[in-house]
């Protein structure tokens, strides 16, 4: 196992900057997830760590050793891709042991490592099957097993569950989390799915346009996002944002006029820096913070109801057309098109400035 350190790492293709200066410290044994929208650079960053992409500038260290010019095969990393990339003419056993055989490892050592990986992944009964006789989840486990047998210092996963259906993704998330607990190997995992990030990660790295927006534990990012981008990306459904202007503050409370609701005012308890009167702000409210006992009030007309059994997501729009998502336990009592008084807990609301930076 090993730690991974990136110091002002950059990647450019010609005059186009893709990674614009990323510095990270990934501790030995940590499970770190890179998240962000398509095109943010998360897969490129992973490929730079693996050696599949050259580093334009900056330094990459694995286990305390500089890796910028080290061949990918000698970095001590193993990568699992979105596509399974299994050899169709080989059995599960042959696929899992191929890299070791190619490297000239003794047959008995290869067999022992493959059998050990198969036991960890529950593949013992499938060892003589070929990929066409496996389900998607089984194929992905074989791809993971192929990485395990190499006994790497660092596991790299590039959106490994994207090709699976919803039920299999849940199952494989559990399997990957269990695997990390058993092996304790440093793991870097790329996904666009923030649910995967929240459930798997010790630490999340949120990327946008080749830059790190915020790094932290999943619930830390959820509770204390640095800006509207992180607040909107972490959490499903996403946080609601309403445009407003500070009307008044008395040192303990801040009154905000909401332009999205015809200037209706809500009073927010101050939890930090006092915003100036007249300052344009964005008020952030998560769907689960709407509650019957809330002291804030928004008058809405319901556009759609998404019934999920024990809970319902109600969708509406503000006067300016901003989407509003409300989580409620009373979905059976609601109807599309009705007027609805949406109460929310003001102590849970967050304030951001016009540029999107967190005020408090």
Descriptive terms for the model:
five-stranded antiparallel beta sheet; alpha+beta; 360 residues
Layout of secondary structure:
Blueprint: E1 4-13, E2 16-26, E3 31-35, H1 42-50, E4 57-62, E5 65-66, E6 77-80, H2 92-102, H3 107-121, H4 136-148, E7 154-158, H5 166-183, E8 186-190, H6 194-200, E9 203-208, E10 211-216, H7 218-223, H8 228-233, E11 240-249, E12 253-258, E13 264-269, E14 280-285, E15 296-307, E16 312-317, E17 323-328, E18 339-344, E19 350-353
Parallel strand pairs: 3-8, 3-9, 6-7, 7-8
Antiparallel strand pairs: 1-2, 1-4, 4-5, 9-10, 11-12, 11-14, 12-13, 14-19, 15-16, 15-18, 16-17
Folded structure, characterized:
The structure is a single chain. The longest helix has 18 residues, at 166-183. The protein is built from eight helices and 19 strands. By secondary structure, it is of the alpha+beta class. The two termini are 39 Å apart. Strands 6-7-8-3-9-10 form a six-stranded mixed β-sheet, with helices on both faces. It is 24% helix and 34% strand. It has helices at 42-50, 92-102, 107-121, 136-148, 166-183, 194-200, 218-223, 228-233; strands at 4-13, 16-26, 31-35, 57-62, 65-66, 77-80, 154-158, 186-190, 203-208, 211-216, 240-249, 253-258, 264-269, 280-285, 296-307, 312-317, 323-328, 339-344, 350-353. The model has no long low-confidence stretch (mean pLDDT 92).
